[in-house]
UniProtKB/TrEMBL annotation:
<dbReference type="InterPro" id="IPR036812">
    <property type="entry name" value="NAD(P)_OxRdtase_dom_sf"/>
</dbReference>
<dbReference type="Pfam" id="PF00248">
    <property type="entry name" value="Aldo_ket_red"/>
</dbReference>
<dbReference type="GO" id="GO:0016491">
    <property type="term" value="F:oxidoreductase activity"/>
</dbReference>
<keyword id="KW-0560">Oxidoreductase</keyword>
<protein>
    <recommendedName>
        <fullName>NADP-dependent oxidoreductase domain-containing protein</fullName>
    </recommendedName>
</protein>
<dbReference type="InterPro" id="IPR018170">
    <property type="entry name" value="Aldo/ket_reductase_CS"/>
</dbReference>
<feature type="site" description="Lowers pKa of active site Tyr">
    <location>
        <position position="83"/>
    </location>
</feature>
<comment type="similarity">
    <text>Belongs to the aldo/keto reductase family.</text>
</comment>
<feature type="active site" description="Proton donor">
    <location>
        <position position="58"/>
    </location>
</feature>
<dbReference type="InterPro" id="IPR023210">
    <property type="entry name" value="NADP_OxRdtase_dom"/>
</dbReference>
<feature type="domain" description="NADP-dependent oxidoreductase">
    <location>
        <begin position="38"/>
        <end position="270"/>
    </location>
</feature>
<feature type="binding site">
    <location>
        <position position="116"/>
    </location>
    <ligand>
        <name>substrate</name>
    </ligand>
</feature>
<dbReference type="InterPro" id="IPR020471">
    <property type="entry name" value="AKR"/>
</dbReference>
Length: 282
């Protein structure tokens, strides 16, 4: 378990390329483009978040960019992640898709650009990675990584001796889906684990074991799950469209889950996938 010195929303993880990513970010999957996304991002920035996770596929990059500009916060103090859609895999198509994301965001550069999932083919994944490397060389992207990659996909990418290694693998992880195989491989390869759907999309928030632990620390079930991710050493990107929850989800730096309770939470694993699971794709 990686132990980091937490400093609230100013807690950073040093990526393998030495760039700093805020450990806790706001995810905006399934937040409607327009007012809903602008509000959520605005509330998050007001609450002190400095990391937003979007994707071309979420159709709200435009609204994320608007909220960032309206905040008046200097660009270099906000970390923006977006992602390459599966249907845009390939070299030319990935370059074009990344340029379009930049345009929609209205930004000069993307902090972290991810291959959203491995759902294409070995050739198209390799072409896509080459395109991402090119975007870094052109200064339009600072860091590149992958999402939903299983160990075999990571081995394929690392085995192609890329000029730039992936700095993160963004995967679904929470106590009901601990993904120890992928996590261990990433840790050994200095690829940071970014935990998506850290609240299991809300599916497991009523779990009695979780709620017993939450009561013990006088925290909500969601806060315990976010704190669990942080103590596991993961970057974590909970989503909410509600101001109070966005604030609540960042209020996770005033307690420490004891090792014994971390073990109890780990023991809830049942390989439960709340969304999709491309990690098992060929
Ligand atoms: N790379 C990928 O393939 C991938 C896949 C999925 C997700 N992600 C990323 O990860 C982010 C988070 O994952 P997710 O959106 O799937 O799910 P999540 O963060 O695990 O859960 C979001 C759900 O929990 C609810 N919620 C949030 N805070 C709460 C609180 N304090 N108390 C009670 N309920 C709360 C939200 O409701 P309200 O919004 O109504 O508050 C929403 O229904 C996404 O937004 C996206 O950025 C990436
Ligand atoms: C991936 O692309 C690079 C650069 O074009 C090439 O040298 C390499 O052979 C490719 N690897 C695979 C496994 O296709």
């Amino acid at each position: 378990m990686t132990r980091v010195n937490f400093d609230g929303l100013q807690s950073f993880y040093a990526l393998s390329n030495a760039r700093q990513i805020p450990l806790l970010g706001l995810g905006v999957y399934l937040v409607e483009p327009g007012k809903a996304t602008e509000d959520a991002v605005t509330w998050a920035l007001q609450a002190g978040y400095r990391h937003i996770d979007t994707a071309a596929g979420y159709r709200n990059e435009c609204s994320v960019g608007n909220a960032i500009r309206k905040s008046g916060i200097p660009r270099d103090q906000i970390f923006v992640t977006t992602k390459l859609r599966d249907k845009d895999h390939g070299f030319d198509s990935a370059i074009a898709a990344c340029e379009l994301s930049l345009e929609r965001l209205g930004l000069d550069y993307i902090d972290l650009y991810l291959i959203h999932s491995p759902l294409s083919s070995p050739e198209r994944r390799n072409e896509s990675w080459n395109a991402l490397q090119k975007m870094v060389a052109m200064g339009k992207v600072k860091s590149i990584g992958v999402s939903n990659y299983g160990v075999h996909h990571l081995k394929e990418l690392l085995g192609s001796n890329p000029t730039i290694r992936p700095v993160v693998n963004q995967i679904e992880v929470h106590p009901w889906l601990t993904r120890q195989d992928i996590v261990s491989f990433c840790e050994a390869q200095h690829i940071a684990v970014e935990a998506y759907s850290p609240l299991s999309r809300g599916h497991k928030l009523q779990d009695p074991t979780l709620n017993k632990i939450a009561a013990k620390y006088s925290k909500s079930a969601a806060q315990v799950l976010i704190r669990w991710s942080l103590q596991k050493g993961y970057i974590v990107i909970p989503k909410s469209s509600h101001k109070e929850r966005i604030e609540q989800n960042a209020d996770v730096f005033d307690f420490d889950i004891a090792d014994g309770d971390m073990d109890v939470l780990d023991s809830l694993n049942e390989n439960y996938v709340s969304g999709w699971d491309p990690t098992v794709a060929p």
